[in-house]
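Sample intake sheet
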Amino acid sequence: MFKRILTLLPLFGAAAFGAQTNLWPNPGFENWNTELDLPGDVAWQWTFRDLNRKRSSFSVLEQNAKEAASGKCSLHLKDDSADRTVSGFGWRVPKPHVYAGKVLDFSIKVKQIQAGRPNTVGVVVVALTKGKPVQAERFIPTAKPTGWEKLNIRLTLPADLTGLCIYLMCANHFNTTAEAYFDDAVLTIEEQTVMKQTEKASVSDYRKEFGTIIRFPQDLPFPWNHEFWGGFSRDGKSQTRYDLKQKTVPLAGIRFRAGRPDRLIDLSAFRPEQVKFSMLASRNAKFFLNLYSCDNGKLGAFGFKQGGRPENGMFRYECTLADLKLSAAPSDLSQIFLQFTESLEPGPFEIRECALILPTPAAKLGESAAFREFLAGSGSGNHVWTQD
């Protein structure tokens, strides 16, 4: 089942409630401690998302006087290693326990120079508790260069808060490069009562309604997790082109996974026979299609035991959801898992299209009514999602 994530609240300017204290030290990065080589004078308060590589996860971490949203300087972060690390530079909030149950509002201006993929450069807030940590995030939704963009996160901190860290993320994914500037950080933490008038706000306008085809991962406004193992490796030219350097192992797999409940696909408007899975691949392979629902329960599986049918030099695989012998009608879709029963020979393997085909554009991004019932029944609490 999905873990309880956190409560995110709609975004409103702090100015509406009067002046508030900015807790972020050196918010414009105008000062720099040259001895520590940090934007602050207390070394322990600054940390890294990758605690093994620490500062070496960046190729550049410095004060910069050539780019600034305001003032004279900004923070310049760059990661050009493209290996299995994430590069984030964080500030630990001192005495976090005094902010338990209060509302955090953080904003910062970001100028992205380049990113290997969308949603790579941004901000991550991590709240430690006596149990599992709570995390909120906000990213630049494109890989292209941008001007100065303001990112906001607003959330209610857990009542059992034991630690709080805000990371400025340069590369939030493995095998991805990125470069960006950060400036004008504003961090305020106020009493919960300040936000009473905003709690009824709706997030329905943030939900995307799809057309009659949903491609994975291309059509999703927020990327699903793309995972593969057993001999598959990406060749760097395409999200779904793989370079098999040696035979894959039996039961090797490729998976597209939501990872968060606000990134589910709501299919409750359709009957199983109305939803078709379709995939176009460069090889005639035998595999099982496995679909999973909102609480990670397996909906069903279908085996392409005879492979696919030839189509323009490639191979087409198709079935409806009714062919999967579903244990229940699909309300939410959280995962598509392709499990290859036989080893594939070395060489390129391309999935040109992996998609759901629908009769009408009625599938939406976000929780269905069934998932909300699941949350209520599991005691996971109330939650509201932002656009991140």
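Comment: The chain is about 5% helix and 40% strand. Residues 213-377 form a domain with the Jelly Rolls fold (CATH 2.60.120).
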